[in-house]
Model the fold of this input.
Amino acid sequence: MKIAVTGTGYVGLVTAVCLAKIGHKVTCIDIDDEKIETLKELKCPIYEEGLQELMQEHQNDIIYTTDYKKSYKENDVIFVCVGTPEREDGTANLNYIYKVCDEIKEYSKSDKVIVIKSTVPIGTNKEIQKYMNKDSDTTFNIVSNPEFLSQGTAVKDTLNASRIVVGTNDKNSKKIMEELYKPLTKPPYNVPYLSMSRESAEMVKYASNNFLALKISYINEIANICEKTGANIDDVALSMGYDQRIGKQFLKAGIGYGGSCFPKDTKALYHFCKDLGYKLQTIEAAIDINILQRQKLIEQAKKDFESLENKKVAILGLTFKPGTDDLRESPAFDNVDILLDYNAIVNVYDPVAIDKFKAIYKNKVNYYHDIDNTIKDCDFVFIMTEWQEIVGYDLNKYKELMKTPIIYDGRNCYDLEKIKEAGIKYYSIGR
Ligand code: UGA
Done:
């Protein structure tokens, strides 16, 4: 099948490359010349395990281009994977989607199936269909096909997806989508394929992300109670997870969720419901808890030190989670900003995102490419991301290299016994 994918962010690029992997001819479109040039050289502009290798393996099946006019004309199925960022009022900004839709409408000369992968509020696909077919000679069928991949494991999550969700009310589009995804629904992948209305598909995406965010905020609250009662969140979460109705995943307490999805999608659903006249109380609480959770390490450091002024602090990990170079909504920003407000001296380390962080913070902080130099002569450490380089770091070195070996760990990286043996003063979440 000849497919165009517009938007080469995490979702678009991974989708395009995986569609090529399952046998389709794909045109990957972006308006960013520089990005397209990088892709043409078969260099992956994002840090995502296995993606560069697949790009190389399928170089003959993918065209990278900025020429959307030609691409929209020549392909019968167009995947829209552009961003739906948060507006200042918390609602989803659909401008990029509508801009792409305008272009598709202008340059398509035959009927098209438009697959919306971008996360959009419930009812948007129907609205887009009305908008595109108004005063048009060609027919556009809009299909909702939400994405469930996680950054860092995006390729695996796409090829071995938990499920494929397709929302359409058009028989022909339904057939085309079944055909398109057939290779993934058969062995060796055997991905469950779920067909439904567009509204249901849109809702599945928000309901899933919001549920996961809620689960994290819930376990973070339980962790906070553990701290007050002497219980240990590791034991509590592990034991809860054995109940299959609860499940073991997404019960890791910490400094709070970040990234391009949970913070945005919780606020978007909350505001969407508010506009419907429904107060989504669970999600409102999840959002508030996540804001407070990000202050946990600062609160503790303020209790331990009379003043944070001129204290030398090492921030280990900057990305919102390991396995990605994405900094969006990372709790590291909140913590670095507050420390700078207190006039602390901030050293930062991250195995992949130092340059990206530098582009934002310029000369406000000191940048390092190894942990040894980051923590040297520091008064304390803040751990923001559970990178393997940090989890596997020799604990004795904290004592050896720091002025005072004090760690505030927002990701519960270390074993409490081992930390004790190493003679480190340690604060972690809920333990
Ligand atoms: C999330 C969802 O997990 C995907 O299913 C979804 O497709 C994606 O959003 C999206 O909408 O595009 P992602 O943002 O890549 O994926 O990352 P997650 O692994 O879900 O982590 C999000 C945040 O939650 C991270 O900051 C992570 O550290 C935090 N987290 C996660 C916890 O604090 N505790 C946990 O137990 C799990």
Remarks:
- DSSP finds 19 helices and 14 strands in the chain.
- The chain has a mean pLDDT of 96.
